[in-house]
Amino acid sequence: MLTIGILGSKQFIDTISKHYSNYPDITFISYLYQSPKDTEPYIEKAYQETDFLLFSGIIAYYHARKQLQKYPLNSMYLSFRELVLSLSLFSIHYHHHFPLHSLSIDLPDKSVLDGLLKELQITDKPYVKDYAWIYQLEQHRNSLDIESYIRFHVNLFHQKKTTFALTSIHAVYDQLQKHNIPSIYMMQPSTLLKEELEKVVTLAKLEKAKDAQIAVISVHTSFPDTQTDNHSLQLAILQKLQKIGRKLNAHVSMEQMQPFLVYTNQGTLEQFQIENVLQELDSLTEGIDLKFEVGIGYGYTVQDAESHASQALSYAAKQSSKHTITYLIDERKQLKGPLFQNEKNISLQNEDSNIQQLAAQCQISTKNLLRFIEFVRVHQFRSFTASALASYLNLSRRSAERLIKRLLEKNLLLVTGEEQPYEQGRPRALYNISEKFKQQITIKILH
C-alpha cells in the first residue's frame, strides 16, 4: 500500500482531503500545523510513515528544508499559480466591489501580480508585500517573520489606506480574522488541487516501483519563421511527449508549454534510454527546420529535479547547433553534456577550497561564483556584457552589475572595451577575466 503525507494548515487539509477518495488504493496521512514554521517536527514522522510528502506551499517547505536534508524524503510543495491570484481578485471584485488601490496583498512573488495587471492593462495598484527571497533556498537561512505580514495588513487598515486584505498565508488570515479585518485567503481552485494531487500520486508510484531519484525532462524549441501554425506544432509536441510519457509511465505537465515538463524517475528513464526519448522528439522535425533544447534533472525532491532540469536546459540553450542539444544535471549537481556528442562531466559542486575562499573574499555565494565560471567556459572565454551575464545567471541586471563590480574590485575582471547597441543608447562595457583570476581558479572538467 502506498502512503502519501499531506502537510499543511487545517484549511488546506480540509480542502484537499475532499479529493482523497479519487485514489482508493492510496493511504493519505494528514499533518496539521498551526504555523508553517512548525513543520520541522513532522518531517521525521513523515519519513517513517510515508512514501511521499506534499507541502501546502513554499513557506512550509522552506522551514522544513534543514530536516529534509537529514531525512531525505521524496517531497514537493504546491506551487503558487497565477490562476490562484486572478480568481481571488475576481472574487473580491465581484462579491465586495473593492477597487485595487484599497487592497493589501501578500504573496510569494509580486512579479506574478505585476505581470497579470500589465497583461490586463490595469494601472490601479494595491499595497503589496511579498517574500520572493524565499525561493533562494540555498542562499537564505533566516526565518519568515509571519508577524511582519500581519502588521502590514493591520497597519494599512487602521490607517484607513485599505479596506480589505488578501493573504497567501493561513496563519496571517487567522490573525486578520481575530482583528476583525475584512479579508480572504487566496482561493485554491479544485482543478489545480486535483492536478497537483495527481502529480504527487504518479511520482509516489514511480518511487515506490523503483527506488531512484526523481527525473524531470524539460523540453524547449524555437519555432522557425517559416512555420505559421505554431499552435498546431505545440500540440503535436505535447502529443508526442504524452506518447513518450506512456512508455515511461510518466506524468506530462499540462500546466505550461515552453518548456514542456515530463516527470518520471531515473531508473525508468535510463531503462527506456535517454537516446530513445531524443529520437522520438527528432521524428517531429522531419521536413521542418526545427530543433529542441532538452534539459534533464535528477533529484531527491521534485523541486531539486525541476531546478536541475531548468539549469541543464539553460546550458543547452546557450549552445549553437542545428541539432537537438541535451544536458543533464544529476542529484550530485554533476553537469553532463551535450549528451551523445563527446560529452563531458562538469562539477557544479563547491568542494574546491580555492573557490570557497575566493567567494568569501568577493562577498558572493559559491553557487554564483561557480555559475559565473561556467558562464565564462561556455562562452569560450570571450568578452561579455552585464546583460549577457544577467541573462545566463537568471539575475536582474543590477545583481549582475553588483557581481561584476565585486570581481573588478578584486582585480579578477578587466574592462576590455565597449559594445555599441544597434539602436540608440549608451555603449555597454565589455568584461573578461584577468590573469589573476585564471591563476586562482581551476575549472574542473572530468572526462
From TrEMBL:
Highest taxon of the lineage: Bacteria
UniProt xrefs under InterPro entries: Rev_trsase/Diguanyl_cyclase, WH-like_DNA-bd_sf, WH_DNA-bd_sf
The protein's name: Transcriptional regulator
Taxonomic path: Bacteria, Bacillati, Bacillota, Bacilli, Bacillales
